[in-house]
Design goal:
mainly alpha; 77% helix; 142 residues; 0% strand
């Protein structure tokens, strides 16, 4: 078996995640997130800060999707994995990666960084949806 990833699927997932993070943290949860983070809701970052943030977001989305693609490709070597539907593969991958890697970080932030459960729900929810959307794109791309 050949170990490979789909660059086109990774690229699409990066773009979709960029749109998702924008919608999640502006349209859906901006007011609550700003309040819970302790930011002044009347203050907006300057253009340079926004450009830097967007560039780092794209880089982060690429690294996230690239590693997820390689992880999903690696799991195809497990006996019986090829018989699992792409939907089941995406759901299992998203849930268990979220549970094992994101939830512990967000729980630690509640204790050590004094973050709220609302932030846990907003940030953890974003990471789960992001994993799920990316996994769906990567597992269904033919």
């Amino acid at each position: 078996m050949e170990f490979k990833v789909n660059i086109a699927a990774i690229s699409v997932a990066v773009v979709v995640n960029f749109i998702l993070i924008f919608v999640w943290y502006t349209t859906l949860f901006m007011k609550i997130w700003v309040k819970e983070m302790g930011y002044d809701p009347n203050t907006r970052p300057d253009g340079k800060t926004m450009a830097k943030g967007m560039a780092f977001t794209v880089i982060g989305n690429f690294l996230f999707t690239w590693v997820l693609a390689w992880t999903l490709a690696g799991w195809q070597f497990i006996p019986g994995a090829r018989e699992i539907s792409p939907l089941t593969n995406a759901l299992n991958s998203a849930f268990f990666l979220w549970l094992g890697f994101y939830v512990p970080v967000h729980l630690s932030a509640i204790v050590w960084e004094k973050k709220s459960w609302k932030l846990f729900a907003i940030d953890g929810g974003y990471h789960f949806v992001s994993l799920l959307v990316s996994a769906l794109i990567l597992t269904n791309w033919v």
